[in-house]
Structure formats: structure tokens, C-alpha cells
Design a protein that fits this description.
It is built from 16 helices and 16 strands. The chain is of the alpha/beta class. It holds the Pfam family ABC_tran.
């Protein structure tokens, strides 16, 4: 993937004795000790990360973890004390004033928690504002603003006063205003945290739809682990100004970096994150379609099970043979293909656990996991599904 942002050894220190603070930190002293000895607050400490073009990258942490400080470094509202932030390979800290102005105007936009709207302007006036600053013609900026207003679901409200809107609608205006400038990067600092749960859920869904349509790079800040895992292609967990782990939601859930991450994510809705490939197992009893019923019976007996998964010579899943059918086939001199159950539950390895819960509860056999060519990859038992939840 193409990197759009690269963060290399970024520190943000507040106080006078920064060099001594840096020295103490590199000696292993923690944030509290550094502040006690130097009076310096370490807001960010040795941040290293890459953000890919077109991904939603979520930064999560408790209050004081440094997540908002970090996101404000991307548009130079905060300037790093040490280190580099590269935008498409260019160090933004070394840009000239004109380059910084153009970068903020053309390449990056921000959506704030408190909306940041102009109360004396109506909806379309707010959305047009950035385009007006850029000198776009009245007709062109009107058309662009209306396009964004429609995109965020506010069609028909373009002439409404800001004070007449609900919190959710105001945030849609803020999102439309940010998108109107057609930025490469959209910064969102806890944009939905002040909204009620239902509105928040709707806006999360809208954001995912917009991102799929426009393929923007979104850097999203939150303190809600379920929101982070729902939205993020990758998630970074921060603590005391440091990155603790960067991973996909699934990777982080199945392989947390340490106890802090494990405790942080323990309340996440696992069934919405974990995919089948992480809970499937290899079936102990597999027979080929051209094997004899006697061989199938022996295979089941040797593995202490009462059914077998039937595959072709090339491992294509054909169905399930239970012990009763195998015994009957042997008595009547039938083939396995004559008695297998073909109408059985199947799923893909990338399916989410939440999508197979209902099936797992009622199915007679463990669910077969197959690829696009129907090749048997494993099975998922009811116990596996329920324990994952």
C-alpha cells in the first residue's frame, strides 16, 4: 500500500528543560518521574507509525494518552519538538509558510468534536466557507457544497440556520464542510462523542459509506473501543504519550501486545471483530467421495466421532456422512455419494463470527469452512462460536 503519512521518532514536550527530559526518558524514567525532575510534560514520546492511502486509521486512548496531541501534529496545530512527519515523503515541519498554507488549504481538513460551525451562516454557507476562502467562483462552490450536503444526507436542509439543527445534523455539516475542500486526509478528533448512541451509530455508518465512495484517508480519534474496531482498518492504542500497539482490530483482539491492551479491549464486542479463520479447527474425520462406507465407519470409530466430512480427490467439500447412513450404505452395498447429506451449513474463512451465530446454534453438525472454490479449509463447532462470543 502507498504510504501517505510517515511519523518518525516524534516527541512533543512541554517545558523548558527538554533536553534533560529526553535524556531521562531514554534512561527509562517514566512520565511522572520526568515531570518531577524537570518540570517537562511528555505529551508524545517516540511515535513511529505509517498511515496508508485510503485507510481509516483510528487512534484510541484514555484522556491524557496523547491521541489528540498527535492528531494535531498532522496539520501543525502542534509542532513536534523532535522527529519528522512526512506527507507523501515531504517533511511538513520543514515546509515554507506558503507550503504550509497550501497544505492546510488543499491536502488536509479537520472535523471537530464541538462542530466549529459559523452560527451566522446557514448550512450551505458553512459548507461553502472553505471554498470561498480558496477563491472558487460562486456557482462552482455552490454546486460543490450541494454535492457534499447531499452526500452526508442533508438534502433539503441547505438553507436551514445552524441553530435549528440537532447535534447529529451539525456534525454532518462539519463533515460536509471538510469534504468540500476535497482533502487527501481527513482528521476527526472524537467527532461523535457528544452525540447520543443512535445518532452516533448512524454517523459511523455514514462515514464508512462516504469513505468507500471517496476513498479518503481518515485519521479518527476516539476513546470508545467498539467505535475504534467498527471503523478502523487499523487501530493504534496510546498510553502516556506512547504507542502501545498498532494492528487490525482482529489482530489486536486475538494477539494483544500486553496486559494493558488486553484490559483495554476486554469490553469490545468480540463477535463483531473475530472472523471464522481465527476459531476454525481441522476436522478429525475426513473421507473421500470414492472411499467405501466401511472405510468411513473405521475412520469415524478411530476418531471417536459420529460423522465425517466428505471431499473430492481435490478436497472440494461434498457433504457430511453420519454413522447411521454409513452403516446403512454398507448393508445395502451403496456408495458414500448415495447417502451423504449435501444440504449442510457452510461459511467462508473471512466471515465474521456474528454472522454465523444463529446457524451455529441450530445446526446439527459443525459448520464447514470453505473457500471460493468450495475447498474444505476447516470446521467451526458450536462451542467455538459461543466461546468466541
Amino acid at each position: 500500500m502507498e504510504k501517505i503519512i510517515e511519523v518518525k521518532g516524534v516527541y512533543k514536550l512541554y517545558g523548558n528543560d527538554k533536553n534533560q527530559a529526553l535524556k531521562l526518558g531514554k534512561e527509562g524514567k517514566d512520565k511522572a518521574e520526568i515531570h518531577k525532575k524537570t518540570g517537562v510534560t511528555t505529551a508524545l514520546w517516540d511515535i513511529n507509525l505509517d498511515i496508508n492511502q485510503g485507510e481509516i486509521f483510528v487512534i484510541i486512548g484514555l484522556s491524557g494518552s496523547g491521541k489528540s496531541t498527535l492528531v494535531r501534529c498532522f496539520n501543525l496545530l502542534n509542532k513536534p519538538t523532535y522527529g519528522e512527519i512526512l506527507f507523501k515523503g515531504n517533511n511538513i515541519s520543514k515546509m515554507s509558510k506558503k507550503e504550509i498554507y497550501d497544505f492546510k488549504r488543499n491536502n488536509i481538513s479537520m472535523v471537530f468534536q464541538n462542530f466549529g460551525l459559523l452560527s451566522h451562516r446557514n448550512v450551505i454557507g458553512n459548507v461553502e466557507f472553505g471554498l470561498e476562502i480558496r477563491g472558487m467562483s460562486k456557482e462552482e462552490r455552490y454546486n460543490k457544497a450541494m454535492e457534499m450536503i447531499n452526500l452526508v444526507g442533508l438534502e433539503g436542509f441547505e438553507n436551514s440556520p445552524i441553530d435549528n439543527l440537532s447535534g447529529g445534523m451539525k456534525q454532518r455539516v462539519g463533515l460536509a464542510r471538510a469534504l468540500a475542500n476535497d482533502p487527501d486526509i481527513l482528521l476527526m478528533d472524537e467527532p461523535f462523542s457528544a452525540l447520543d448512541p443512535l445518532v452516533r451509530k448512524d454517523l459511523q455508518f455514514e462515514l464508512m459509506k462516504i469513505q468507500r465512495k471517496l476513498n479518503k484517508t481518515i485519521i479518527f480519534i476516539t476513546h470508545d473501543i467498539n467505535e475504534a474496531f467498527k471503523l478502523g482498518d487499523r487501530v493504534a492504542i496510546m498510553k502516556d504519550g506512547k504507542i502501545i500497539q498498532i494492528a487490525t482490530p482482529e489482530e489486536m483482539t486475538t494477539n494483544p501486545a500486553n496486559e494493558y491492551v488486553r484490559n483495554f479491549i476486554e469490553n469490545a464486542d468480540r463477535k463483531k471483530i473475530i472472523s471464522v479463520k481465527n476459531i476454525m479447527i481441522t476436522p478429525s474425520s475426513i473421507v473421500k467421495i470414492h472411499d467405501t462406507p466401511s472405510f468411513a465407519i473405521t475412520t469415524m470409530r478411530n476418531n471417536s466421532v459420529s460423522s465425517a466430512y466428505v471431499v473430492s480427490e481435490k478436497m472440494k467439500f461434498m457433504g457430511i456422512l453420519n454413522i447411521e447412513s454409513a452403516i446403512e450404505a454398507k448393508k445395502q452395498n451403496l456408495k458414500i455419494e448415495d447417502v451423504i447429506e449435501k444440504n449442510v451449513s457452510k461459511t467462508g474463512a473471512d466471515s465474521l463470527v456474528k454472522d454465523i451465530i444463529d446457524t451455529a446454534i441450530v445446526t446439527r453438525y459443525p459448520i464447514a469452512v470453505v473457500d471460493d472454490d468450495e475447498i474444505l479449509m476447516g470446521i467451526v463447532t458450536k462451542a467455538d462460536v459461543l466461546s468466541a462470543v
